[in-house]
Amino acid sequence: MELITKYFGDFSPVQLQQFAALDELYNDWNSKINVISRKDMESLYEKHVLHSLAIATAFEFRPGSTIVDLGTGGGFPGIPLAIFFPEVKFLLVDSIGKKLKVVDAVAEALELKNVTTRHTRIEEIKDKKFDFVVSRAVAPLKDLWQWSKPLLKKAQPNSENQKPGLICLKGGDLSQEISESGCRPRLMEVFEIFGEEYFKEKYMLYVSV
Predict the structure, then answer these.
(1) What are the residue ranges of helices labelled H in 126-174?
(2) How many CB atoms lie within 10 A of CB 44?
(3) Which DSSP letter does residue 157 get?
(4) What are phi and psi of 75, to 5 degrees?
């Protein structure tokens, strides 16, 4: 938890309480349904919560905007971002139902009114459009962009700030993956945002419509 307050100092008492509660909630649920590796549970705040919040350092989601978390797994990056942006609506999607059971329970315990979940494959969502798609190490960029494009709202002609797009967190050498995707993403180094050793060779990619 100290890691979160080391880099962010602007939280309300409710948000601080919600972030602090993640440790016990995930430890409890992870013992029943394994959504996070045992080894990673020891560094939940660094490897999962803070990593998810890298997105919040580069993107200011406007109140009322809509975000879909593609392949949310145990709720990352969606849950930390939903705490960070209480006035933004998040849909957390995964094709594995038992993972969403954990996400639903965590969101309910934290009283996150801005989180809904859907047990489906992302390609099957036809009834909604979103301002952003977020994702963490789910699939190659080529696939992520192919799935994301139909879900994104059109860019407004006078939208200063960020256009609708895909924001994904990835690690390692991405040169071939980017080349094969046919995209020209904006690439940001997470290590430049958070100076922890873990974030070396971790990147945030943004592809806009």
Answers:
(1) 141-148
(2) 21
(3) T
(4) 110, 25
pLDDT digit string, tens, across residues 42-100: 999 999 999 999 999 999 999 999 999 999 999 999 999 999 999 999 999 999 999 99
Q: What is the dihedral of CA 169, 16, 85, 92, to 10 degrees?
A: 60
The verdict on whether residue 136 carries a ligand-binding annotation is yes
How many Å apart are CA 31 and CA 206, to the nearest integer? 34
- Threshold 0.90, pTM exceeds: yes
CA-to-CA distance for 181 and 72, rounded, in angstroms?
A: 21
H-run or E-run covering 202: strand 202-208
| 123 annotated as belonging to a binding site for a ligand | yes
192 annotated to bind ligand = no
206: its two tokens: 């943004």
- Beta sheet of 115-119, edge-to-edge order: 115-119, 89-94, 66-70, 132-136, 165-171, 202-208, 186-189
> Do 191 and 202 form a contact (C-beta atoms < 8 A)?
yes
Report whether 97 belongs to an annotated binding site: no
Query: What stretches of 33-73 show up as alpha helix (H) in DSSP?
Result: 38-41, 44, 51-58
How far apart are alpha carbons 62 and 187 in whole angstroms? 22
178 annotated ligand-binding residue: no
In this structure, the strands spanning 202-208 and 186-189 are antiparallel
